[in-house]
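Quick check before the chapter quiz. The format below is the same one you will see on the exam, so make sure you can read both the input and the output lines.
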Amino acid sequence: MQTIVPDHDKKNWICVIGPYAKPIARIKPGETVELQTMDAFGNEIHSESQTLTDIVQMPFVNPMTGPFYIEGAETGDMLSVKIEQVEIARDFGISAIIPDFGGVCGTSWTRTLNDPLKARIFKHKINGDLITWGQGLDIPKIPIEPFYGTIGTSPSLEAISTLSPGFHGGNMDDPDVCPGNTVYLPVEVPGVLFCIGDGHARQGDAEVSGSAIEVSTRGVLTFNLIKKHPIRTPRIENDEYIMTVGSARPMEDAARIAFYELILWLEADYGIERIAAYQLCSHVAKVRLANMVDTLYSVSAKFPKEFLPIKRR
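Here is the expected output.
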């Protein structure tokens, strides 16, 4: 099994997802790979006494491990990534208040005349499967729920910041990108040029401050290709749900994209007539607000598998 480790000299981690970076590894369909990722701050923060603005220089955040070249992948295929395992690689996580960033303050995209929030670093101890939130707050320890905040494939032409989500995946911050689940991504260029990173020990829905409990990780992933099966947005699947992710602003457009793609999936693969699928989603579907902080917001539409046609499950 290949093991891929990012270089801290920036030779094999990147802050854009696109078709121009040289692949750091080649992977065969069906291959399982072990890889390491750095946290959203490039593993540069280890103390609450550090000065955040000396370290975080937007938009140079969310360094990704990659890109990976998937052998035999062609435009119009679909990449399948089974997340076998995500381990937290250290005994602490970092979160932060970043000026001009967050869901309920003025940002670079939503302007207000209020002063930016003051920068602040939070360090959270991790012991086994439990997080001590800290700051003298008397609350129970928080169970870890590790996942990858950013996962994506190269667009055909442009290079997109790893801070941004989109039709290629990217910084969706969806907690369903977690161990046991399979992520499906579009293939827009030969070889896919897949990237991953932005490990989280825990994140609430919406990631409202713009920072999860950020960690470096060791992960195990299995890659496969579904040939000649183009998709337009990321999909996720587990034993309970099929899911689609839409990213846009305003937030309702992200939800519309997610449900549009979910309805087309129900029609194409499960034989549910489109209008019936539309109505059925009104009755049984669920929605997750993955993030309301990034350059685009991400919403996941989730359809329970128990309500799929019995012969098509």
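If your answer matched, good. Residues 39 and 57 are 15 Å apart (CA to CA).
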